[in-house]
Amino acid sequence: MSSSADAEFFARLAELNDKFAASLPQTLGRLSAARNAFDPKRPPAALIEQMHAVLHTLAGSSATFGFRILGQQARMLEQRLRVLTTFDAVGPEEWEAWLSELDVFIAWGSVDPKAAYPNDESSV
């Protein structure tokens, strides 16, 4: 009976993995749309919150579904975003630097989110 339960568990997990993978293009698309609407001179709080929520969700769930590097990179972007939001004032150049990192993440994730991350020697 145990092996039957194990088989069911792993079948369900594989189904959830496939569902997560299928949802990635839409999730990354939401991040991309938010990024395109982002004004580094006047970043809207609602947009920052939306981006934070998407990154937080990716950071928390990616490794569970076999996307360890995606989760790690999402967590780093989320943490940097959180740091930026703690300051009273953030210059446009700092927002632009963060947005550039986000652009790399979205481009990479849209092609192969299980591949080595660009310029990441730790995953080589």
Automatic annotation (TrEMBL):
Residues 18-82 form the HPt domain. It comes from the Bacteria. GO terms for molecular function: protein kinase activity. The keyword Nuclease does not apply. It holds the Pfam family Hpt. InterPro entries: HPT_dom_sf, Sig_transdc_His_kin_Hpt_dom. Keywords: Two-component regulatory system. GO terms for biological process: phosphorelay signal transduction system. This is HPt domain-containing protein. It comes from Massilia cellulosiltytica.
